[in-house]
Amino acid sequence: MEKSKGDNMTIPQTSAAEEMITRLGLTNIEVSYQPDRAKDSLDMDDTDRTFIADWCATHDRSVVIHGTDTMIETARVVAKRCPDKVVVLTGALQPARMRDTDAEFNLGGAVIAAQASVPGVYIVMDGKLFIWDKCKKNPTTGHFEPL
């Protein structure tokens, strides 16, 4: 299922993300939801990562909503496939359906980063923009930090 809402910015998403986009009033974004790809990032495999990379390769600027546990692994595959595209991966420490989630904040930051960044693959979390291979997820805190 794919919805077009305007310019060439695209976001593959889950239904919770679609609700966030509506709440945030992001009306100039093309939205693509792949329900068969909506899974915990620990359950993702190379086929899933290749699908995401191939999808991003067809768009100039993309935001990918992704689980944080394997976000860097997916970013690695996307970076190889999409060197001339802007791709921003984001997620949340608390799922979007939780009351105290950071999902909307991170999504808003990712949308801005996707519009303003030069080609490359990035991760946006906690109000910070990272180049995908210059950061790591701290296993103790769960937050992303620079290498």
Describe the fold and architecture:
The chain is an alpha/beta fold and 147 residues long. It has one domain: 3-Layer(aba) Sandwich (Rossmann fold). Helices cover 32% and strands 25% of the residues. The protein is built from four helices and nine strands. Strands 1-3-2-4-5-6-7 form a seven-stranded mixed beta sheet, sandwiched between helices. The longest helix has 14 residues. The protein is globular. The N and C termini lie far apart (37 Å). The N terminus is likely disordered.
β-strand percent reads 25-35%
- The assigned CATH architecture is 3-Layer(aba) Sandwich
* CATH superfamily placement: L-asparaginase, N-terminal domain
Count of extended strands: 9
Helix and strand topology:
Elements: E1 2-3, E2 9-13, H1 15-24, E3 30-33, H2 46-57, E4 61-65, H3 71-81, E5 86-90, H4 103-116, E6 120-125, E7 128-131, E8 135-137, E9 144-146
Helix pairs in contact: 1-4, 2-3
